[in-house]
Amino acid sequence: MANIKLQPPRGTRDLIGEEFRRHHHVIETARRIAALYGFEEWATPIFEDTRVFARGLGETSDVVSKEMYVFQDRGGESVTLRPENTAGVCRALVSGGLTQSLPRKVFYAGPMFRYERPQAGRYRQFHQIGAEILGAAEPLADAEVIACGHHIIRELGLDEGVVLEVNTLGDAPSRDAYRAALIAHFSANRDKLSEDSQRRLEKNPLRIIDSKEAQDRALVADAPTIETFLTDAARAHWDALRRHLDGFKLPWRENPRIVRGLDYYSHTAFEFVTDRLGAQGTVMGGGRYDGLVEEMGGPPTPSVGWAAGVERLSMLLERGGLTPAAPRLVTVIPVGEAEEGAALALLQSLRAAGVAAEMGYRGNLKRRMERANKQGARAALILGEAEVSRGVAQLRDLDAGTQAEVPLAEVAARLG
């Protein structure tokens, strides 16, 4: 047993030190900004009835057919580790009896799971933040959820290298006409399509538009766009969305190649993209999904939202030199065992006052000072026999290199 070298499972990783600080910073920043927009945070189970995702993502999607972690529990029920969280949020809305109190604005953060080939910014256990507006059909809801996402990216200091791209998927009649045009276009070149796209041509031709295969991309470049197939209602939604984005003063550009393949997606589709992460350039993406709540057994509920990869945002922070600094502690150092009681009382009084502090468990004064410097402590409080008898501490500023005697009752205020 002593020779076994256990490692985290392939496609997972430990979050320690700087990596954890970046990860935490992304989630806490998103949580804070989402609250400013009126989003309440929900937490749904990490695993769900498999039908939640099979219905929510579509049986033919790559996630369902290739990437989900599906297993039977001891009761023989089929459960799945969540590959995304929008379906779970919609299920919670229905099972929680909340469809009578709409709209609801929901924020979430947590781990997701997909069995795929690990690569830069992609893991088998990964983390997402997300925002959903459930029960609002107005284009203003689309614009506001996008504005919230942009605000989070800006607050993280990443907006300069990230671009918002927007498209419309139209309504059902628009999509039906567009689907027919795509089938005609790709059928004429069927033998040039990749094997996956040949299958998609029969089941879901819109998904060919976002194929990453080079042979497909050449055909997609000449494919028709949905713009000419929009109904009057779909065009009105599209025009209003663009007007509201301008009203929020958001920089954006149109990308007619952003699609969502499932029928319950409609109207708005968008992505925040960057060229700083190689080929995997999307850091946040979403759109309108007016039929998903109904798929979960609820009433028709127009909804819109987005999800963002915490790992990718964290990578952008790292590459931009934006890793948050570690919190700096105050170190309490008793010179000997006789002073430990007074040191512990001082330690707890500092913590009660909101000052981060610690006391080493062993070592003489020199070794404890070396440890304080190595940890980047901002100050050391030294308590010897003379200091304890007079009710004072030696406060050493480790940045300035200065030292002063301070009454114990005033230490917290001086360091606060």
UniProtKB/TrEMBL annotation:
Annotated compartments: Cytoplasm
One Pfam family recorded for the sequence: tRNA-synt_His
Residues annotated for L-histidine binding in this entry: 84-86, 114, 128, 132, 260, 264-265
Organism annotation: Roseococcus suduntuyensis
Highest taxon of source: Bacteria
Record-level Gene Ontology MF annotations: ATP binding; histidine-tRNA ligase activity
Catalytic activity: tRNA(His) + L-histidine + ATP = L-histidyl-tRNA(His) + AMP + diphosphate + H(+)
EC number: 6.1.1.21
Cellular component GO terms, alphabetical: cytoplasm
Gene: hisS
Domain Aminoacyl-transfer RNA synthetases class-II family profile: 10-334
SUPFAM superfamilies referenced in this protein's UniProt entry, alphabetically: Class II aaRS ABD-related, Class II aaRS and biotin synthetases
Similarity comment: Belongs to the class-II aminoacyl-tRNA synthetase family.
Quaternary context: Homodimer.
PANTHER family: HISTIDINE--TRNA LIGASE, MITOCHONDRIAL-RELATED, HISTIDYL-TRNA SYNTHETASE
UniProt protein name: Histidine--tRNA ligase
InterPro entries linked: aa-tRNA-synth_II, aa-tRNA-synth_II/BPL/LPL, Anticodon-bd, Anticodon-bd_dom_sf, His-tRNA-ligase, HisRS-like_core, HisRS/HisZ, HisRS_anticodon
Organism placement in taxonomy: Bacteria, Pseudomonadati, Pseudomonadota, Alphaproteobacteria, Acetobacterales
Protein keywords: Aminoacyl-tRNA synthetase, ATP-binding, Cytoplasm, Ligase, Nucleotide-binding, Protein biosynthesis
GO biological process: histidyl-tRNA aminoacylation
